[in-house]
Amino acid sequence: MSREFRPGEVISYPYLWAWQQQRGETEGRKQRPVCVVIAIRNAADGNTHLALLAITTQPPQTGRASLEIPDIERKRAGLSDLKQCWIMVDEYNYDIVERSWYIESGQDILGRFSKSFMVKIARLFAEARGRTGRVNRLDRDLPHPRRPPKRHPLKSRLSRSPAPQNCSCVRRGGQFACHATEAVFDDEDGSERCRSIASRLPG
Length: 203
What we know:
The protein is an alpha+beta fold. The chain folds into two domains: about 130 residues, no CATH class; about 50 residues, no CATH class. About 15% of the residues lie in helices and about 25% in strands. The chain has four helices and eleven strands. Strands 1, 2, 3, 4, 5, 6, 7 and 8 form an eight-stranded mixed β-sheet that branches. A three-stranded antiparallel β-sheet has the order 9-10-11, with no helix packed on it. A hairpin with a 2-residue loop joins strand 9 and strand 10. The chain is globular, with a radius of gyration of 19 Å. The C terminus is likely disordered.
């Protein structure tokens, strides 16, 4: 059984920025501290749904919704080694603990923000919800990285079938997966790639 995650806890997580996802990236570039702003356990299946906010040392760009973390809160969150940092509230990563590729069920926390500071974070997060970017870290159509990938029978038909208009291809490691055709194929199979990949993924 996984440990209980609570709002205000700070953990290490390979956060994927919304702008990175828009460029076709599927993996966070590095581990960074993130704050659990929402943690809800589903009574039906016992799964814990998380909304995670990124913490960064880079000053936010103009127009971004963020909150600078005071020194005392940095210490509480286990971030005392950072001289200055902000928590971003206008985008978040969505993950499920029990199905996550990035969270261990017994993962230790770095620290936890105070209740009063979490009230401020939650209020800003709620105010930004109308323009909040959600990055879903659960690509259900992709094979789990801890299991051998399966090759779909539709793979052989990709080279002679036009890509559907709603095709959404994503890349994980050395493989591509097409959400529309449900096909999984290797990077080197260039002749059988879905026609939409070239326009959707950076080279």
